[in-house]
């Protein structure tokens, strides 16, 4: 298998992007589901949530165009086909269509709502992964993303009560999360940063030890520990060999707060492998804690703290906090890798392999091989979310369903389905808002 | 300044102004300030009331830097101050007895002064934020001094009724509840009351993970009940402030009140620093030298990191770049300096393409053309904490004490002051620690000013090195606890500077909420 993967990746050449993008936007980009998502059950018109949404395009030569907005799916599709952006960012829903922002008076143009988003980037883990650095990833460190997705997803659902959560591969070295519940979209920046803080544990700054657990350990942290523990032996001991070399050992030993215990552990490390060393470390620390729980209370959670230090999700606060912060759109193509930002199925997160995500060049070949549509006119542009136009245009639009992109559409399709079912809940929220307002 | 005269005279004046003051108007000492006062007051009262309340708020502001909120020290100092300056805020509401005239008078004063200050502090988001924070501190302090029965009465009066969760529910979540806050064993859970509220009502508890969350609801223990109330109070007040700011233009024609109101602005906020005041004063060839003499530690460490690694990540470039602008490095020099340093790392081409925009942006030459103000200590301490690869932030807050000690040694701070600094850091007094560092490196006993802004630090240092007399207090937003003089005789400056320090979008969102309501 690895051989094939490498071949496939080699098949994408960044220089070919300008010639591939027109094909991608013409035949492959899933306009229907994409726009259905961002319409959120509204229709074109003054109530439309789509029309007031900011899109930003990055064009060839790093030209950046902000505040784009579109009234209909047709308009959106037409623009993409014309501009062929190498990157699409999604921003907030504003008080007025962003392209008309100059028509409204001074302060009236404001960001109102946006999905609650999270950005997890592998570069933030550079100090704890040995296999790769910077923009590089491999299957070994990708486990960190699986851990992060599991932890954050569970907390968003069980702790915060959100239901419509979309996870997306960022195309290169990370993942994005879009929480689409109406309640989530309406959160204030303050609430958003509170949520990030709740979810984050690693202390900021240049501290040697960045996780310290104290009693009582919050249920969220307990849950996180369970998730990390299920991956720990395979990930840290087998894949990373985190107690293999001397400099690794020095780093871990620094996390033991008691100097005597630290020395003792170090002595016992000689001539052992990672697994035995880890076992010994846990034994010695817990023995020291048991011997005098009052004096050695700092030693109680040493092994937990080490696990957290190495595996705990690292979130970018600023991406989440600002309502008007832009985030790369799902189904965008990453210009460096050519991979499409595909949805990730959380229930199968461990099976997700970033290296088998289809690249734009593969998709274009697949489209070429499949039967070419009869006409290449602008017929598909008439398509709006409500209008049912059968025949050619419909066929054209669903071409992505015939490519390997379809294999990744399931989480997105079920999100759309769920969102549809959630619409009646709107009235309830409105009521509770009224009650709380005074 | 004296308040009003004897009770007898006050009562006369009330009659004169035809004001009914009775228990119905002020049923409780604490209030949510729902209704604006609807009575006549004299200009003299207007100014006196506002001034006395401002003094209290300023005291709270300085106290928040020097003592941990709600610690014993904090409460003692605040009580002592109030006893001397504003005993009305120390009164707790007694239930079940007649309210004295004096008490009612204090309530009226509380009511009026709050609304006057709303007018004074609604003018910019920065002022609103400051006012909101201080009023909230005051409210919390007073709330905690009320008795259980009086609190119940307050809640009832303001329609803030919350029902505790049932015993069954408590038992069901007992394990989670007991691990969600301090001193809460499972046995304790059995005997405590919990309130189930949407998590957005207790964001401070969510932030610090001091509450159990389930399906979007927070289970708030009785002792954290204040969090719920203060969130409500905060929301209410921030909406009200935005409304007031919209109504304010109507006041523009009133030449009696406006000068008084405006005089409060200039003395309110400590973070504002005019980015233009030093323009062109510093040449980039001097930066190396200056970094050793006059830079605060936070800037020195970013400078050193930039020189060594030829790179700074985003917030490092922001923090240091804006600082450089405000000490007087021109845009041209700034571009030269950054290109020279970063170019060594990433190459001149990449710099010109990807980074020079941001520097021009900082100087207001790109994008929305805002001339950004340099970050204040509060911003550096509380916003954008550095990760492992970063060098920005406040070294007193964001560096472990061992590392900090080492750093101070390399920078040749005297060893006895190092100990003192480390102790201050451990007690969370980051700005005081910085002041100590200033004193130690400038061979002074005590620092001559309160450190609230890196650029202010720099200016003070330069003054001392050039042999000028230090000013003794902060600029622009100087703390003037003891000699507060409304400067309404002076011409009014419409400050053009825009402070981008604060999170605008929150206020913006609230404005929208209001307009939708």
UniProtKB/TrEMBL annotation, chain A:
Annotated Gene Ontology cellular component terms: alpha DNA polymerase:primase complex
Cofactor(s) for this UniProt protein: Mg(2+); Mn(2+)
Catalyses which reaction(s)? ssDNA + n NTP = ssDNA/pppN(pN)n-1 hybrid + (n-1) diphosphate
Per the record, the similarity remark reads: Belongs to the eukaryotic-type primase small subunit family.
GO MF assignments: DNA-directed RNA polymerase activity; metal ion binding
Q: Which UniProt keywords apply?
A: DNA replication, DNA-directed RNA polymerase, Metal-binding, Nucleotidyltransferase, Primosome, Transcription, Transferase, Zinc
User: Its Enzyme Commission number?
Assistant: 2.7.7.-
The region called Disordered is annotated at: 369-393
Full protein name? DNA primase
Q: Could you tell me which InterPro entries the record lists for this protein?
A: DNA_primase_S (IPR002755), DNA_primase_ssu_euk/arc (IPR014052)
**Source species, domain of life:** Eukaryota
An example Gene Ontology biological process: DNA replication, synthesis of primer
Q: Which top-level enzyme class is recorded in the Swiss-Prot or TrEMBL entry?
A: transferase
Automatic annotation (TrEMBL), chain B:
- Please tell me where [4Fe-4S] cluster binds in this chain: 298, 377, 394, 434
Q: Which organism is it from?
A: Ciona savignyi
What name does UniProt use for this protein?
A: DNA primase large subunit
Q: Which family does it belong to?
A: Belongs to the eukaryotic-type primase large subunit family.
The molecular function GO annotations come to:
4 iron, 4 sulfur cluster binding; DNA binding; metal ion binding
Instruction: Give the record's GO CC terms.
Output: alpha DNA polymerase:primase complex
* Database matches in PANTHER family: DNA PRIMASE LARGE SUBUNIT
Listed InterPro entries: DNA_primase_C, DNA_primase_lsu_euk, DNA_primase_lsu_euk/arc
Please give the subunit comment from the record. Heterodimer of a catalytic subunit PRIM1 and a regulatory subunit PRIM2, also known as the DNA primase complex. Interacts via (C-terminus) with PRIM1. Component of the alpha DNA polymerase complex (also known as the alpha DNA polymerase-primase complex) consisting of four subunits: the catalytic subunit POLA1, the regulatory subunit POLA2, and the primase complex subunits PRIM1 and PRIM2 respectively. Within the complex, POLA1 directly interacts with PRIM2.
Q: How is the cofactor bound?
A: Binds 1 [4Fe-4S] cluster.
Q: Where are the residues of the annotated region Disordered?
A: 465-503
**Cofactor(s) demanded:** [4Fe-4S] cluster
- Please list the coiled coil stretches: none
Instruction: Write out the entry's keywords from A to Z.
Output: 4Fe-4S, DNA replication, DNA-binding, Iron, Iron-sulfur, Metal-binding, Primosome
According to its UniProt entry, one GO biological process term is: DNA replication, synthesis of primer
Looking at the record, the residues that make up the DNA primase large subunit C-terminal domain are 289-458
Describe its function: DNA primase is the polymerase that synthesizes small RNA primers for the Okazaki fragments made during discontinuous DNA replication.
List, alphabetically, the Pfam families matched. Answer: DNA_primase_lrg, DNA_primase_lrg_N
